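Intended use. Records like the one below are meant for learning the mapping from a protein sequence to its folded structure. Do not use them to infer anything beyond what is encoded.
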Amino acid sequence: MKNKFLFGISLGLVAFLPACKKDNYKPPSSTLTGQVVYQGQPLGVRSNGVQLELWQSGFQLFSKIPVYVSQDGKFSASLFDGDYKLTRLKGNGPWVDNTDTISVHVSGTTTVDVPVQPYFVIKTQTFQKSGSAVTATVKVDKVVSSATIERVSFYIGGTTLVDANFKDGFDDKTGTALADLSQNINLSITPSAALVAKGYVYCRVGVKTSGVAEMAYSPVQKIALQ
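Structure written out for the chain above:
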């Protein structure tokens, strides 16, 4: 009976050791950073609205690693050293679809730019306090000749996270107001009492292309109200 008991313990240890070895794998220690760019400049997007994908072959499980792009066009991922394929998802971004893969060798801290061709871009933007309102003067450039503009939107908020989903006020221009893009587009918002009490707002403008879900955005800018 004693021998059977010891034999059972031995089997349990044999089964336990591989599990311990598997659970003790070191976490990824390298970092891939980058940004989506147009003409060498980062393109603003909706926070966590745009996703890239990383793929690595050579392992039993060949699955995607989602990489979300922040509102300033930048992204970051913790990875193991190795060779990866970085892809832009079809229909996921305010730019022309490009599903070509980008080969990336990750070793330590690695940086890569992801080029895109937006349909429209915010070329210039000026924000200022005007009386009780905050105004935006915007110039939009068409990049893709066949694209149709749907709207230009001005957003304000109480934090640096500002877009179509995170806002405390907005103003849109559509239709005939966008007929001549060689002219400046003027937008205006009266901040709420709560924002006025804070003494400042964060401003941002975006341009939406017809038939495209995501917007291209300007950088966020802080404007004093007092």
